[in-house]
Amino acid sequence: MAVFVTFGNQKGGAGKSTCTVLAAGALSQPPFSYRLAVVDIDRQQSIAARRAYDLQDFDGLLPYEVLSYNFATFEAKLEELDNRYQAVFIDVAGKLDKEAGHESEAARALAYTDLLLVPVPPGNFTVQSTVDYLEAALAIQEAKEAQGQALAIRAFRNLYRDHRLTGRALGRELEELRSLAGIELLKEPLRRYAIFEDTNTLETIYKPDSQEPAHRNFVRWLNEIHSIIQNL
Question: What domains appear along the chain, each with residue ranges and CATH number?
Fold first, then answer.
């Protein structure tokens, strides 16, 4: 059986697709070596487009598959995905329409998700947008629990700079979010490093022996996520 993972937030620019590629690239390669696929059902198809670009002049083994599906195809392939892979990352548009009775594709994807990871970048209006998203996600979590299924939810600071005023404010706001909504937070933020933003769909930046700050930050962040996946 596969673990289905979604990075989700309806705030644009939160880093959902970048975090998906970073995590998939690491978990599909040593020391983890998961049989892994990324299913790109976001209509922008940014991960599928990036994989096509990365494959130019590439002649080697792919670390993981990138599957470009529409939502109907994704639903039709669920059993196959579950049987074939150890982990499936779902890249989907973030908008959760509460007024539509949780029928948006993002909401429907969460019905199939085991772990929702919510990146929260600093910036005006980000936290309120995230709260709205989490309220809808918590309703889906409750509905899944009523059916004997589980949806684990974790939030984390993304594009983080602790010496910036916005970064410190974000830390305080997320602590309030944890106390108000009971949302668990990853201990390790994912900081703003160029190596993260310049990542591709073929390489891993998981280097546990590196002393480079970006690599050390990424290793701690990814290890937290891997621990959660193992305990689902």
Answer: 3-230 (3.40.50.300)
